[in-house]
Design brief:
This protein is mostly helical. The protein folds into two domains: 27-139, Recoverin, domain 1; 152-275, no CATH class. 56% of the residues lie in helices and 0% in strands. It contains 15 helices and no strands. The longest helix has 21 residues, at 125-145. The chain starts with 26 loop residues before the first helix and ends in a 6-residue tail after the last helix. Residues 95-103 and 281-285 have low confidence and may be disordered. Its main location: mitochondrion. It comes from Apolygus lucorum (Small green plant bug). This is EF-hand domain-containing protein. GO terms for molecular function: calcium ion binding. InterPro entries: EF-hand-dom_pair (IPR011992), EF_Hand_1_Ca_BS (IPR018247), EF_hand_dom (IPR002048), MICU1/2/3 (IPR039800).
């Protein structure tokens, strides 16, 4: 979806016009001049974008190096540096001095955003998760707008399908077949997908691991995973009211034999990749691996005998 693409821009050249589809209160305007951020912060934000809320709740405890329940600026900078060192996408650019894409430390705007102008405030888990949520919402909104919504503000079912399958890793022929199926089914009764429904669906995806567990229970119990079941799971597990039309599009994509039942394994696998934006394999940021290593180390450690 173009997350690893960029244009070179020199703020000194004021005659250069930036076309950024950002609201005035965009988080990017708070982090950098003219809505621009440093490459180092790009790597950090990409990690924030592709890491689950639950993992960050664990990571926050890692950030809290002195155990006082909050994170100060020094602790944040140490962990931010560690995260970037673990990032494969950063490694791809780290030694490319000729492109100018090298690490130059944490942007002062980012630390100011978290810790105030004097850098003496504390960062709470609530503020960090609020930051993550706003970042995800802005990126999702930008992705949605890139599909050029129609006069009613909706994108087509095919556009929605392309966004869902962006990181599925399907062969072109299979992806083309799925898109043709969606276009065929909704050719005469297209309602499109609104931005609100699009954001709701991705809020649902933020709980995909819990959804996976719930759907597995249904499968073990021998119950079919039909449209009503998916709607119920979304409501009870993720607290999201998915529209009947969005569910209809999802089933058109993942109901291979058109028997009214969801192909659960494939749906979950594709949605997990979509949530992680293809960064787990082979472009893993390394952050989840870092958390898993710390947990393993903690389990294997034993307290010294007094």
């Amino acid at each position: 979806l173009g997350l690893d693409q960029y244009k070179r821009y020199d703020p000194k050249n004021v005659h250069m016009k930036l076309e950024l589809a950002l609201d005035e209160d965009s988080i990017f305007y708070k982090l950098g001049s003219s809505g621009l951020i440093t490459f180092s912060d790009y790597i950090f934000l990409l990690t924030v974008l592709s890491t689950s809320r639950r993992h960050f709740e664990i990571a926050f405890r890692m950030f809290d190096l002195n155990g006082d329940g909050d994170v100060d600026c020094e602790e944040f900078e140490k962990v931010a540096t560690l995260i970037r060192q673990q990032t494969s996408i950063g490694s791809r650019h780290r030694d490319h001095a000729n492109t100018g894409n090298t690490f130059k430390g944490v942007n002062s705007a980012l630390t100011t955003y978290f810790f105030g102008t004097e850098l003496d405030e504390k960062l709470t888990i609530e503020k960090f998760l609020e930051f993550q949520n706003q970042l995800q919402t802005e990126i999702l909104s930008l992705e949605f707008m890139r599909k050029n919504p129609g006069p009613g503000g909706n994108i087509t079912e095919a556009d929605f399908t392309e966004l869902l399958l962006a990181y599925a890793g399907y062969p072109p022929k299979k992806k083309s077949k799925m898109l043709k199926q969606v276009k065929k089914v909704f050719k005469d009764n297209s309602q499109g997908v609104s931005k609100e429904d699009y954001l709701k669906f991705f809020h649902f995806l933020n709980n995909i691991n819990d959804v996976d567990t719930a759907l597995t229970f249904y499968h073990i119990a021998g119950a079919s995973i039909d449209r009503a079941t998916l709607k119920h799971v979304a409501k009870t597990v993720a607290h999201v009211d998915l529209s009947d039309h969005v569910i209809s599009v999802v089933f058109t994509i993942f109901d291979e034999n058109m028997d009214g039942q969801l192909s659960n394994r494939e749906f979950i696998a594709v949605m997990k990749n979509r949530l992680l934006r293809g960064l787990e394999k082979p472009k893993d940021t390394g952050f989840v691996k870092l958390i898993q290593s710390v947990i393993k180390c903690a389990k294997e450690s034993r307290p010294f005998d007094v």
